[in-house]
Amino acid sequence: MGIAVTKYSDISNNELLAKFCSNDVICPNDPFWNQLLAFNIQIPNDADEQLIFDTCSDALLQKFLQNNQQTGNLGSLVQVFITRATELLAAPNSDNVMLAWQCYNALYVIRAVTKYLVEMVPEYELCIHLDVQARTMNSPAPQDVSPPSSPIQEVSVTDNQVSSKPMSGESRVEMLVDALIGLIIDVPITDNTYYLHLECINTLLVLMSVYMFAGVHGQTRLVETSLIFRTLFQGRYGMHAPLLVKTLLSNLSSMMPAPPQFGAQGPGSMLINIASSLWSMLTFNATTRQTIYTNPPLHRHELLERLKKEHPVANQSCLLLLALANHCISEDNLYRTALLHCDDTSENSSTTPHRDTNGSVTQVTPPRIDLAALHKALCATAGCEHSTLLLYLMLHSCKAYKSHVSNVANVEHLIVPILQVLYNAPDSNSHHIYMSLIVLLILTEDDVLIKNVHLIMLKNIPWYTERSISEISLGGLMVLVVVRALQYNMARVRDKYLHTNCLAAIANMSCEFRNLHPYVAQRLISLFETLTKRRSRLFIEIEGTDDLNGLQLPHQAEEKAEEIMEHIEVLDEVLRMLLEIINSCLTHQLVNNLNLVYALLHKRQLFQQHAHHHIAQNIEMVIGYFSTRLQRVQEGAGGDLGVTEVLQCIKKGAEQWSSDRLKKFPDLKFRYVEEERPEEFFTPYVWALISACGNIYWASECGARAAGDLLA
Q1: Do the beta carbons of residue 106 and residue 99 sit within 8 Å?
Q2: Are 144 and 171 in contact (CB under 8 A)?
Q3: Mean pLDDT over all residues of the chain?
Q4: What is the pLDDT at residue 180?
Q5: Which of 257-266, 485-494, 525-534, 601-610 has the highest mean pLDDT?
Q6: Do 696 and 690 contact (CB within 8 A), yes or no?
Q7: 270: pLDDT confidence band, cut at 50, 70 and 90?
Q8: Alpha-carbon distances of 466 from 84, 461, 511, 518, rounded to whole Å
Q9: Rounded Cα gap, residues 436 and 382, in angstroms
């Protein structure tokens, strides 16, 4: 590639790349590698640029696929990378820019080739391509060591003998994974090593993406048979889990802005002026870089693009964490264990992850991280779907983080971005809405939080355009947005789990509703009215089906009736829950919710239709009590009362009201319970997020099919 390449279009005619992909055997110690790897490259920034790159390199990669099992050139390149990585790891704090640059270039080529192989061949063939090793006729034969986990056979050709296994007996997958994890953990991130770290993380994701393409290649139960996954999850590298998880969490928490790439001068360019590029990196003032902290995006849809562009290491670290934590969930996944047992550095700042051997038992200390920094990063990126998923994992299963959120100030920084996702439900996919609702549900399980959200006042929410509200409590905004999401779901999606989670979150908050905004109270009662009318229409419709039976086939009429009855059952459940929510608020907080009482009085006739519900009897009692007082005041005034007079009357009545009059019901309290075999949902979902939210682009037809099959 070297100095000859200036554009993506030059790749197909590059002599050095042509030699690498040809049937020429290139040994690891050949000077050729110094020439090949003397390049600067602008990483494809989107799927379109990736498609250009793929198109320009396709012919060469096809030749590589034909020849590599005879030449072993990919294995030689991996060995070159491992040699450079070993030198860098020998002095990890040296910040050696040239060595980091050489490692990065070697790894970029490895990733590009491996990504092509992942798309084109099954995983066991990928392992063959990595392991195959050429040797001359006069060189000694390697020891006959059977590979422990992959169906690799020895291949021989006329001019060279090719061994399927490195002479050490260790597969190159293991050697490559070892080097990648070592670099991520031990080499500090600086301007000079930033893109090397990014490439290490991306290469691990590409190796793991064999899961994503398993269906394309007709493979089943891939994780159980995969050498790559067994290396990561069952091999000795699993012992690195606390350190790797700590590093990836730190990458996300620090949100370090990306320095200029080596010679980044625009899309599709590969630059040749190394000296200029190095000088640019060495002299660029980090404090001038724009970040999502210093210049937050104005619109939610900008967040992901800026995160990928300005903080790619943080973005990819989040995705790698999700991939590692959501495979082999039901087994002893040390990455998941480390993630969900991490603690704050303030608990014991002198303790860092390490491995202690006690006989045959390996004990690991959970990673200690700066939870405040992690929380800040998750708040800043909560509008992104993969951040929402990591937030869910931490809130659901990490006690230390959940405790931190319970005690942190300014909880609105976390909740408002989640509400914005729900508010824009038509523009968000169902999985993101679902996970956002679960996050809210988990948050509302906290008794302290559901009190505090009504004490936090928000002014002029720019994204809430349904109605102009100059000021509203965070709790009121939560109710308003969740009610809106519920209405959207009932009208369009009709997903039982979605409306159940909506109602559960509101129900958890209901006993602490305080000073609900008039519009919030109105929307709650309006929702109840709308669903009541819909239920009545459906009963009329089902009665009408009897008249249509003579015009329709019997099975069509029966199916229509069953569909209507199912909808009525859902409406009955929602209406019952809404009655329980209103009753809970009146039982615990009537004196603090005069606007809700006003809304009830305004729609008093509505609740007469639901008198058969025992819970509705409490609501009828409240309506009756305040109606009587209003009637007396109105008669004394000799005319209709204005809104202010009505509210004043309600306030005086509330001061004399005793909740002992109401029948007692159990407090509403819902907790989210994860379903059995969660990996069936989360594992393909994570890979859909890696494809949609990451910096690795699968632009080929095969890649598009694999991504599309994940959530099919």
Answers
A1: no
A2: no
A3: 84
A4: 96
A5: 525-534
A6: yes
A7: very low
A8: 58, 11, 27, 15
A9: 9
Q: Which runs of consecutive H residues, i.e. helices, occur in 549-642?
A: 554-589, 594-602, 614-637
Query: Dihedral angle at the C-alpha atoms of 355, 358, 363, 367, nearest 10 degrees?
Result: -40
3-state secondary structure of 364: strand
Q: Three-state SS for 263?
A: coil
Measured CA to CA, the distance from residue 260 to residue 113 in angstroms comes to 25
How many degrees, rounded to 5, is the angle at CA 335 between CA 365 and CA 307? 115
Measured CA to CA in angstroms, residue 525 lies from 507, 578, 582, 604 at distances of 15, 9, 9, 10
DSSP at 213: T
Q: pLDDT digit string (tens) for 422-459?
A: 998 777 788 999 999 999 999 999 999 999 999 999 99
Residues near 327 by Cβ (< 8 Å), separated by ≥ 6? 208, 211, 223, 229, 233, 333, 679, 683
Backbone φ/ψ region at 510: left (φ over 0), alpha (ψ -120 to 50), beta: alpha
Can you give the three-state secondary structure of 490-544, one letter per residue?
Answer: HHHHCCHHHHHHHHHHHHHHHCCCCCCCHHHHHHHHHHHHHHHHHHHHHHHHHHH
pTM of the complete model: 0.88
* Cβ pair 180, 237 in contact under 8 A: no
Tokens representing 347 are: 């608990």
User: Using CA atoms, how far apart are residues 323 and 316, in angstroms rounded to an integer?
Assistant: 10
CA distance 419 to 40: 43
CA-based Rg of the chain, rounded to a whole angstrom?
31
| 273 pLDDT above the threshold of 60 | no
Confidence class of residue 493 from pLDDT cuts 50, 70 and 90? Answer: low
DSSP 310: H
Q: What is the separation of C-alpha 533 from the centre of its chain, rounded to a whole number of angstroms?
A: 39
Burial of 142 (C-beta count, 10 Å sphere; 0-12/13-18/19+): middle
- Cα–Cα distance between 61 and 19 in angstroms, integer? 12
- Any residues with CB less than 8 A from the CB of 311 and at least 6 apart, and which? 255, 256, 257, 258, 291, 292
Retrieve residue 246's tokens. Answer: 């700590």
What CA–CA distance (Å, rounded) separates 443 from 378? 15
What residues contact 651, with CB distance under 8 A and at least 6 apart?
594
Mean local confidence (pLDDT), 635-640: 74
DSSP state for residue 666 in the 8-state scheme: P
User: pLDDT tens, 95-123?
Assistant: 888 888 999 999 999 999 999 999 999 99
Domain boundaries along the sequence of the chain:
2-281, 516-669
DSSP summary character for residue 369: E
**What is the DSSP annotation of 293-308?**
TTS--SSHHHHHHHHH
| pLDDT above 60: residue 271 | no
pLDDT tens figures, 344-395: 988 764 444 444 434 344 555 789 999 999 999 999 999 999 999 999 999 9
How far is it, in rounded angstroms, from Cα 494 to Cα 499?
8
Q: How far apart are CA 250 and CA 269, in angstroms?
A: 32
In which residue are the tokens 């809405």 written? 433
Residue whose entry in the numeric block shows the structure tokens 């991130």: 189
Residue 159 has phi, psi (to 5 degrees) of -85, -25
The C-alpha atoms of residue 181 and residue 236 are separated, in whole angstroms, by 12
The residues pairing with 361 across neighbouring beta strands, listed in sequence order, are 358
- Per DSSP, the residues of 124-172 read HHHHHHHH-EEE-TTSPPPP----SSS----EE-SS-EEESS-TTSS-H
The Cα–Cα gap between 362 and 95 comes to: 33
3-state class (DSSP) for residue 209: coil
